[in-house]
Amino acid sequence: SRETATLLMNFNVGEYEYMSDNSPKIFISHASVDVAIAEYLENIINQIMPEVEVFRTTRIGQIPSGTDWFSNIMSELKKADKYLILLTPWSMSRPWISFETGAAWMSERKLVAVVAGGMSKGEVVEPLKFLQLLSIEHKEEAVMAFTELGGVLADADEFIRTVQSLAIQARNRSLEEQRWDKVDVDGTVYAWDGPLEKLQDGMPKPIAINKYAGFKAAGLQLVTGEEDRLLGLLAEGYSILYLIDFSRGMKHRLVTKDVQILMAKRQD
Prior knowledge:
single chain, 8 helices, 34% helix, 23% strand
């Protein structure tokens, strides 16, 4: 973005020199909504690499109160020996991720970029997609990520289970911040209100019969209708139900086998 480009232009590469003491330092870059995942990554680093000092902006007290937060971040970026960049489907639009990644890349030091939250590497936006990406939700790549940072991940299976659980929490927090009306059924988000206009229209998705119980358990009242019935159903308080694919920025109408549109409202 223009904001990110301006920040990086003002970042003096000539002053990019080690400003650290003898303790190796890792800078974790993440969106605020992913604080729980970043905190867990920091805890794992502390356990397996106790000699390493970790900087994470969302840790309380990490940036002293009353100080210039931007100067503190710039200083820590310059001090770091290695950088861990956390990317999720809901952090792609956050400008600070791009800025901190750009600054880390300019340092020419070790940069480990990881994806989580069900995101595939192909879904990462440019220019971040050109980094060497590792998924911390896949065993071999999670192990490799910590190897790159200088440590050994002891229990990769437990690590992955925890990351996946925290990612669901982060996604829900992000959706709540954006005021989505939605339900989560079997790990997939279905929504009927929120900033839908920000998402592209995808192809309609057929809904499996076994999903209906999940919708009802989540408190939704369902009805189907053809195009000519939509206005009447909207007047009755129903809304079109969409499958939301945040990683691709798309929404998909849900339809039955006979291509009737699925609509929903909260049960009274």
